[in-house]
Structure formats: structure tokens, C-alpha cells
Amino acid sequence: MNATFRITLTLSVVLTMTGCGSAMQPTEFLNPSFDFAFVERVAVLPFENLSSDRQAGFRAGRLTVTELLASNAVDVVEPGEVNAVLAKFPGAVRGQIKQPSTEEIVSLAGELGVQAVILGSVSQSETIRSGAVTIPVVTLDLHMVEAETGRTVWATTHSKKGTSFGARVLGTGGEPMAETTRQCLREMLKALIE
Fold it and tell me: What CATH code would you report for 27-193?
């Protein structure tokens, strides 16, 4: 094989592999009439888990709290405090309300002293196989509800494949599911935090 052909082949493989990992952009709604500067403190409700990964909801909720705190954009109520208040609502199971009503969200926000509540769900959290490589895939849905009226002021959905260049080229394992979830959340929260 001549050197030019080898370089061309290598570049083709690199460009193809890099293109396979390109991510979709999040679908996003941002209420243009809402002043996000007003939001100083938020509560993150436990995430609904619609996937077969039993830890996906817990993992995504905790990572959302951490990413929000790390951004220094808002203060976040501790999850234990949120769960304690949620447990007071009728029908709550282990500190979680299935699809809370607008009135429940407004009441919860008032009790926690927050300007907004973030709700989320995990619709996909699985590992798929691509040849010899396993690739984690996550799909998350988040929305922020204003405390006073209970209306949604921000919503986003995003899917993320978590694999590294080395995993694709060398056939090694992909990144952990937690890292894929974290990267997905960072991309989702970017517009809200900036």
C-alpha cells in the first residue's frame, strides 16, 4: 500500500467514525416573555423513569442537581428536603408524585421557597451494540415550571449516544452510562444556564 492511499484511507475512517458520533441538537421551548433572571432557587423533583434501567431516574435527577449547582446559576433545594415535602401529598409513593397537578406544583414550590420546579423523565437508558462495541444511549425530557402560576416556561428533550473515538476505532468499551447522562444534561441545560 502506498503512503498516499494509507493516509487517505485513515482520514476516511476517522471522518466516518467522527460523523457517526455526531449528536442531535436538543428540541427546546423557551418562553420569551418569562424573565429567567427572576429564578434564584429551584427544586428538582424525582425523575420519572420510563426506561428498563432501574437506576436511570435516580441517576438523572441527581446529576441534574449537581449540574445546576456546578453552574452557579441557581441555588438548588437538597433532594432530601424535596422528598420530605413530596411525602406530605396524597398518593405520594417514596417521595414521588406521579404527574403532579399544577396546584400541587404551586403548593410544593411555595413550601420549598423556590421560584421554579424542574420535572424530568428518562425515556431511554440502554446500551446498544454496534459491532464489537457497546454504546450507551440516553433520552431525557426536562421542563421548568414557574412557581406562581404553574405554567411551563422551559422544556427540552434530547438524546445522546455515549461513545468515544477510541471505542469506535479500537473496539473498546464505550463510556459509562452516567457520563452519557451527564453529557446529555449539560447540552440540555446549556440554554437555560447561559
Answer: 3.40.50.10610
Task: Show me where the domains of the chain are located.
Answer: 27-193
Considering only CA atoms, which of 180, 93, 94 is closest in space to residue 135?
Answer: 180
Q: What pLDDT does residue 184 have?
A: 93
Enclosing H/E stretch for 126: strand 116-130
Query: Can you say how many angstroms the Cα of residue 8 is from the centroid of all Cα atoms in its chain?
Result: 38
- Alpha carbon separation from 19 to 15, 16, 127, 169 (Å, rounded): 6, 5, 20, 13
Whether the model clears a pTM of 0.85, i.e. scores above it, the answer is no
pLDDT tens readout for residues 17-46: 333 444 567 789 999 999 999 999 999 999
Burial class (CB in 10 A: 0-12, 13-18, 19+), 37: exposed
**Cβ count within 10 A of residue 151:** 11
